[in-house]
């Protein structure tokens, strides 16, 4: 597969291979773009910006709607590509295409609602006008866990606002991303509106971040790389949105509806084999219900089928690669060595080159174990108990991260006061799957800055201009 710069299909001398995480089967080769291509892409996006910023909101909306329709028409093909390169079950991959596309339809509408303001002036012969304008060329650097949605979440609001885009998808999952751009071109994207490059991340991003024509960075990935890119954006003072790591607490109060809590735990923990940044990572369950909660969860978890994502029965696919697999095993081993009890799972199938981990529950974990201090990014539920709510909230907040938190209770007053006390950008209140295109997604603290989705999502791609009008 080839990349796209200025609407053209581009090849490079060197390429790199993409493999299926299930068995290391070769899937495709993609271009290994370097400095030259990265620079050409900036030039193309910059030129295209000078046209695209003058289009009307209705024109931008119409393009996004055409792209939406083509993605919907190609759902099965895109989902299969995603399952092959990423490993997630086909039903989840189809779900992701619909979810990714929901950002396109949402921002096709939001494009028309970029409102300005008039503010009463303090002198009779003055008027204060506030306008919103596109920020300019946007660089989007995305991870492998949601190969489609992480792209549309950035590209759709950028295009709706009047920006043009440079994309660098994750090296593990470039195929879905390239196909999405091909469909955008089929939908009539003008040359240079959406450019996509695959290749060495640092080489490409260094060119983009040092170029003052690139006015905005939108990044999803690890906190470590996010901080690095934030520093590199400082010299040209780019606008930045960062969606980084999480360490989500999952708190179950004594009056929780246990069925809801268990369903929420399964939804928040096992999607994408536990490889989402809002996956629940630390389970705090009131001591009075910790046993029934664990038993109920165990029977649900043991029913989950691990296997090839292309098999319609599969609930949990492989982890993305060897490094991810080893990290999860290290977390389980560390917990067991330090006194946690294995309730179910634990054994990785290391007999071949695939990266499967059986869904695992650990109980009697302590706050200092690796599975409680680092983001596991795998299908592991570490359970600890608490006696009073204040200490549960304190422990939940005791982390540098602040993306998503989950709280289960039937008491509405506690639901509200405790969610207000959680230092997190997203609270799933009796809800294990809070993401939605119309809601602002993003974190506090070292989980990042800025929001994706919702009315807030387009603001990230807009500059505010104040015009002081003397009459
Ligand atoms: P993950 O742990 O999810 O792979 P990363 O932060 O390593 O998260 O990767 C997210 C995205 O950032 C990918 O597209 C990756 O290629 C890119 N990336 C990784 N390292 C760098 C870097 N040093 N500079 C720029 N981009 C990077």
Question: Could you name the ranges where pLDDT drops below 50 across 5 or more consecutive residues?
Answer: none
Small molecules in complex: adenosine-5'-diphosphate
Q: Based on CA inertia axes, which overall geometry fits? A: globular
Structural class: alpha/beta
Order of strands across the widest beta sheet?
Answer: 14-15-16-13-12-18-19
CATH class of the largest domain: Alpha Beta
Q: What is the fold named in CATH at topology level of the largest domain?
A: Aldehyde Dehydrogenase, Chain A, domain 1
Number of helices: 15
CATH architecture of the largest domain: 3-Layer(aba) Sandwich
Describe the structure.
The protein is α/β, with parallel strands linked by helices and 471 residues long. It has 2 domains: 3-244 and 447-470, Aldehyde Dehydrogenase, Chain A, domain 1 (3-Layer(aba) Sandwich), CATH 3.40.605; 248-429, Aldehyde Dehydrogenase, Chain A, domain 2, CATH 3.40.309. It contains 15 helices and 22 strands. The chain has helices at 35-52, 57-73, 75-86, 90-110, 149-161, 174-186, 201-210, 223-234, 258-270, 290-302, 322-337, 370-373, 389-397, 412-421, 454-459; strands at residues 3-5, 8-10, 15-19, 26-31, 117-119, 126-134, 137-141, 164-168, 194-196, 214-220, 239-243, 248-252, 280-286, 341-344, 360-363, 380-386, 401-402, 404-408, 426-429, 444-445, 448-449, 462-470. The strands form 6 sheets. It has a 7-stranded mixed β-sheet, sandwiched between helices. A 6-stranded mixed β-sheet has the order 9-8-7-10-11-21, with helices on both faces. The chain has a 3-stranded antiparallel β-sheet with strand order 5-6-22, with no helix packed on it. Helix 1 crosses helix 7 (201-210), helix 2 crosses helix 6 (174-186) and helix 3 packs across helix 4. It is globular, with a radius of gyration of 23 Å. The relative contact order is 0.14. Adenosine-5'-diphosphate (ADP) binds at residues 141-144, 168, 170-171, 201-202, 205, 221-222, 225, 228-229. The active site is at residues 243, 277. One of its GO terms (biological process) is gamma-aminobutyric acid catabolic process. GO terms for molecular function: succinate-semialdehyde dehydrogenase (NAD+) activity. This is Aldehyde dehydrogenase. Keywords: Oxidoreductase.
């Amino acid at each position: 597969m080839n990349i796209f710069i200025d609407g053209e299909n581009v090849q490079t001398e060197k390429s790199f291979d993409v493999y299926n995480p299930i068995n290391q089967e070769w899937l495709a080769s993609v271009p290994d773009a370097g400095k030259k291509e990265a620079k050409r892409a900036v030039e193309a996006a910059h030129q295209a910006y000078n046209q695209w910023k003058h289009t009307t909101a209705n024109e931008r909306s119409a393009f996004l709607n055409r792209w939406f329709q083509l993605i919907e028409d190609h759902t099965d093909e895109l989902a299969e590509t995603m399952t092959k390169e990423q490993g997630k079950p086909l039903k989840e991959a189809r779900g992701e295409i619909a979810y990714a596309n929901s950002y396109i339809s949402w921002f096709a509408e939001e494009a028309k609602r970029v409102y300005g303001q008039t503010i009463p002036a303090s002198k009779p012969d003055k008027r204060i006008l506030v306008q919103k304008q596109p920020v300019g060329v946007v660089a989007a650097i995305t991870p492998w866990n949601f190969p489609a949605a992480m792209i549309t979440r950035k590209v759709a609001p950028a295009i709706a606002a009047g920006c043009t885009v440079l994309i660098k998808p994750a090296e593990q999952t470039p195929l879905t991303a390239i196909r999405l751009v091909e469909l955008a071109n089929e939908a009539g994207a003008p040359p240079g509106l959406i450019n996509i490059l695959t290749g060495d991340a640092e080489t490409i991003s260094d060119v983009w971040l040092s170029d003052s024509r690139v006015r905005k960075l939108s990044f999803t990935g690890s906190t470590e790389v996010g901080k690095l890119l934030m520093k590199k954006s400082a010299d040209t003072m780019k606008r930045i949105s960062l969606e980084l790591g999480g360490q989500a607490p999952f708190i179950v109060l004594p009056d929780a509806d246990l069925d809801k809590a268990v369903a929420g735990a399964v939804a928040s923990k096992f999607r994408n084999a536990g490889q989402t940044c809002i996956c629940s990572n630390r389970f705090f369950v009131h001591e009075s219900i910790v046993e029934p909660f664990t038993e109920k969860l165990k029977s649900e978890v043991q029913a989950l089928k691990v296997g090839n994502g292309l098999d319609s029965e599969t609930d949990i696919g492989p982890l993305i690669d060897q490094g991810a697999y080893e990290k999860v095993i290290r977390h389980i081993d560390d917990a067991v060595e330090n006194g946690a009890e294995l309730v179910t799972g634990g054994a990785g199938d290391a007999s071949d080159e695939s990266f499967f981990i059986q869904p695992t529950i650990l109980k009697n974990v302590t706050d200092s174990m690796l599975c409680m201090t680092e983001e596991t990014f795998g299908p592991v539920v570490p359970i600890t108990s608490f006696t009073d709510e204040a200490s549960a909230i304190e422990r939940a907040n005791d982390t540098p991260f602040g993306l998503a938190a989950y709280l289960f209770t039937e008491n509405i007053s506690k639901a509200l006061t405790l969610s207000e006390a959680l230092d997190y950008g997203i609270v799933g209140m009796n809800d294990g799957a809070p993401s939605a295109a119309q809601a602002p997604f993003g974190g506090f603290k070292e989980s990042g800055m800025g929001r994706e989705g919702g009315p807030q999502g387009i603001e990230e791609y807009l500059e505010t201009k104040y015009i002081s009008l003397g009459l």
